[in-house]
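The pair is set out directly below:
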Amino acid sequence: MFCNRCGAPLQPDFVACPNCGKRIGDPVSAVAQSRLERHLHIVGILWIVLGALFAIPAVAFLLVGTTAHLIVHQREFLNGILPLLVAMAGGIFLILAVGGIYVGVGLMQHRPWARIAAIVLGVLALFHPPFGTAVGVYTLWVLLSDESGNEYRYLAHGG
């Protein structure tokens, strides 16, 4: 007996395929999608949207950072350090924006590295309420189960 999804050999007493995690003998699983299949595209879209939302303050901070010397021209200390701090904040937001968009596209294309990167970003997003926390919790819920790990590996390798 062989798995219908990945072709791995199966023993008669197996409940699930040891290679891809597909349940055996469950007529509903042949028709129904798994949790990962139902939610992976949504998680990818949410990361792209969150990345785009981070791009807005990134552009704003970078613009203010380059023009801050025009605004604060009376205090020499602030004139030197303020533009640097604001530009650094803009750079951090820009990294988060590009990372979120890149991970979202990677998840939607089933790239092998995207699951781990999304889990790391999901943990970091927990500290950015309210939208980051929501996307982080949803990402971790979808991607952290053992079944999701096996199934994502299968999808990433051309399943």
Observations:
- The CA atoms of residues 18 and 57 lie 46 Å apart.
